[in-house]
């Protein structure tokens, strides 16, 4: 079933983890997919091969979220190469943690640049191309909603900022039939936070369903929002964390 047949998606940070799973899932649903990556062209090439094996077009784009101009250029390249843009997934991010007296202003600036400014830049650029039925979906974090421990304030602040921005964009763009939503993953088994890594047990102890999520779980939710069933959902937050925040 190709619910996204004829659509074009751009996923930032699409060469690994949740981003790669999302790029592949959108291709499963029928979309052609561009995605950015900051490092590892080999991984990006592998994701592109998987997408193309599904019969969809793939466009890997080297672009670091620290560079807002590169993110904007990725949007323009997607449109120029694949002909249009229907779905933007703001996924790329960094996870800088530590108590406030140990963090630096440079840590703050980098976190905001990657997690917030880049999402704004991509959304701003995409808004000029999205039509009726367009989607902007940002990957937030359940830490933007609830704080279970120490040292997470900088990351949580950046993801909470994405929520505020997304709700405002939902108002700005709703009259054009464009939806804007946020997906909040909890503990998800990725390189950034492996299910067998330090602190995993403490995270599992918070959950109603005591297991780490998989990137494909998040990708499935993103694809649903991007699909026809999500046409009247906007300004919303979807938490997918095994019940850690209940």
UniProtKB/TrEMBL annotation:
One of its GO terms (molecular function) is oxidoreductase activity. Keywords: Oxidoreductase. Residues 7-188 form the Ketoreductase domain. It comes from the Bacteria. SUPFAM superfamilies: NAD(P)-binding Rossmann-fold domains (SSF51735). Signal peptide: none annotated. This is SDR family oxidoreductase. Pfam families: adh_short_C2 (PF13561).
């Amino acid at each position: 079933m190709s619910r996204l047949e004829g659509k074009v998606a751009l996923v930032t940070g699409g060469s690994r983890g949740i981003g790669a799973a999302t790029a592949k899932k959108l291709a499963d649903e029928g979309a052609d997919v561009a995605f950015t990556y900051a490092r590892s062209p080999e991984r990006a090439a592998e994701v592109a091969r998987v997408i193309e094996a599904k019969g969809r077009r793939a466009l890997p784009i080297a672009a670091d979220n620290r560079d807002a101009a590169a993110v904007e250029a990725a949007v323009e390249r997607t449109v120029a190469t694949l002909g249009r843009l229907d779905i933007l997934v703001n996924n790329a991010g960094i996870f800088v943690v530590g108590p406030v007296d140990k963090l630096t202003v440079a840590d703050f600036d980098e976190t905001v640049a990657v997690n917030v400014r880049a999402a704004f830049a991509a959304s701003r650029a995409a808004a000029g191309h999205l039509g009726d039925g367009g989607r902007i979906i940002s990957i937030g974090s359940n830490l933007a909603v609830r704080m279970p421990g120490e040292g997470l304030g900088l990351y949580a602040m950046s993801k909470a900022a994405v929520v505020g921005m997304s709700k405002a964009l939902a108002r700005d763009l709703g009259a054009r039939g464009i939806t804007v939503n946020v997906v909040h993953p909890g503990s998800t088994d990725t390189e950034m936070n492996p299910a067998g890594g330090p602190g995993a047990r403490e995270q599992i102890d918070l959950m109603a369903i005591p297991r780490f999520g998989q990137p494909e779980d998040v990708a499935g939710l993103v694809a649903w929002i991007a699909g026809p069933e999500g046409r009247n959902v906007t300004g919303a937050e979807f938490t997918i964390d095994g019940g850690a925040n209940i």
